[in-house]
């Protein structure tokens, strides 16, 4: 029969080891409880730790998308406000053109208006060439040869960039659509206030409107210029269309049917005057502004008086082209507003995804209410156990053989 002996030192070592283990467990429980985290290290729960890490990665991507969307939204907002400034400047330009057509102005006063019109034209060009915080043009004009993104042509122009992701909007507005998609005349045909046959501007005081299309097919079929020519027949002003032999008496304000279009001519034409009808062409906002300025500046007779016929015609045409330019700006401004609405919806979606992903992360690594209560209870139980173990060890440590014998 063998008798096992356990030395006092060995018992003390085992007791110390157990107490250290309990203290370590208590410290771990206190760390988790104070942080409110069920998983602090991957060793706590490998599956939950992996789920939480994936959730954090998704949160980083969502934050990145939101930052990109915020930057694009700021650019489009700036572009939309710039289009508002352009709209205001164009409206002011148009109002000055109406003033220029007033009969109470003489040519000297119109020359003063020309200075104002030129200043507004320069302002509009600056607005169109405005850049964002990164130094990139808001309307993406890239004509580096002239240093001005928007000269009077489309060379080097890049249209608005399309959406390139679920949470991205265009980071620029379409400058071509805003400034280079206008049409001369009524959009199908335009009318020049002179006879190509005579080769000189009209000498009378007649002017035409922009014309109203009555037969779109006939108007679209026009490929070469068609002329309305005037002659004086024994004191009666007559006109013919496209060099025809048939002449009709001219009536001030009467409508003339030409190539599927109804043209109204007002005023007093001179013999040899004419109006040439030709297909409309594409015109930029800047060309329209230049033509309007020229209409006010250049319609002066040799004696310094105003050539009212060509002036009135030029102003009529320019006002129409300015209205088209305003419509183009308003259209692109509306598209900018739509992009901002899209950005708002995308931001709401990102926020919802962030909340959902954050909830998944919390569920993976944090205590819920019930789990927190259990964790606190376990920690308190462990504290009691550690305290009891320490007190017991302190009491046993005092014992000796002499105390036992006595």
UniProtKB/TrEMBL annotation:
Q: Does the keyword RNA-binding apply?
A: no
Matching Pfam families: Flagellin_N (PF00669)
Its localization reads: Bacterial flagellum; Secreted
The parts of the chain that form a coiled coil are none
Matches recorded under InterPro entries:
Flagell_FlgL (IPR013384), Flagellin (IPR001492), Flagellin_N (IPR001029)
Q: In which family does this protein belong, per the annotation?
A: Belongs to the bacterial flagellin family.
- According to UniProt, the name of this protein is Flagellar hook-associated protein FlgL
Name the species this protein comes from.
Comamonas nitrativorans
> Taxonomically, what lineage is the organism?
Bacteria, Pseudomonadati, Pseudomonadota, Betaproteobacteria, Burkholderiales
State the gene name recorded for this protein: flgL
């Amino acid at each position: 029969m063998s008798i096992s002996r356990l030395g006092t030192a060995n018992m003390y070592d085992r007791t110390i080891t157990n107490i250290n283990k309990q203290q370590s467990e208590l410290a771990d429980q206190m760390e988790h409880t104070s942080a409110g985290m069920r998983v602090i290290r991957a060793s706590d729960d490998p599956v939950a730790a992996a789920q939480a890490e994936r959730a954090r990665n998704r949160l980083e991507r969502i934050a990145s998308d939101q930052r990109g969307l915020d930057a694009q939204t700021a650019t489009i907002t700036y572009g939309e406000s710039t289009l508002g400034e352009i709209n205001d400047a164009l409206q002011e330009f148009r109002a000055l053109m109406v003033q220029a057509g007033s009969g109470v102005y003489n040519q000297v006063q119109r020359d003063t208006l020309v200075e104002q019109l030129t200043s507004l034209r320069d302002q509009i060009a600056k607005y169109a060439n405005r850049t964002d915080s990164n130094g990139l043009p808001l309307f993406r004009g890239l004509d580096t040869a002239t240093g001005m993104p928007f000269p009077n042509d489309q060379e080097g122009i890049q249209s608005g960039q399309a959406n390139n992701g679920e949470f991205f909007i265009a980071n620029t507005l379409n400058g071509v659509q805003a400034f280079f998609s206008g049409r001369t005349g009524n959009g199908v045909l335009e009318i020049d206030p002179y006879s190509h046959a005579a080769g000189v501007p009209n000498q009378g005081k007649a002017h035409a409107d922009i014309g109203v299309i009555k037969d779109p097919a006939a108007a679209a079929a026009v490929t070469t210029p068609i002329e309305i020519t005037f002659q004086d027949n024994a004191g009666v002003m007559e006109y013919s269309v496209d060099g025809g032999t048939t002449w009709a008496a001219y009536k001030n304000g009467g409508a003339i049917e030409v190539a599927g279009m109804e043209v109204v001519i007002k005023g007093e034409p001179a013999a040899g005057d004419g109006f040439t009808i030709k297909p409309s062409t594409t015109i930029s906002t800047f060309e329209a502004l230049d033509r309007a300025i020229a209409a006010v500046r250049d319609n002066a007779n040799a004696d310094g008086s105003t050539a009212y016929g060509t002036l009135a015609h030029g102003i009529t045409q320019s006002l129409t082209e300015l209205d088209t330019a305003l419509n183009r700006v308003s259209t692109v401004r509306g598209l900018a507003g739509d992009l901002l609405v899209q950005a708002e919806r995308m931001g709401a979606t990102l926020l919802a995804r962030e909340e959902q992903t954050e909830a998944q992360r919390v569920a993976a690594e944090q205590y819920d209410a019930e789990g927190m209560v259990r964790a606190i209870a376990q920690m308190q139980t462990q504290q009691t156990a550690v305290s009891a173990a320490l007190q017991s060890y302190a009491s046993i440590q005092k014992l000796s053989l002499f105390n036992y014998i006595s």
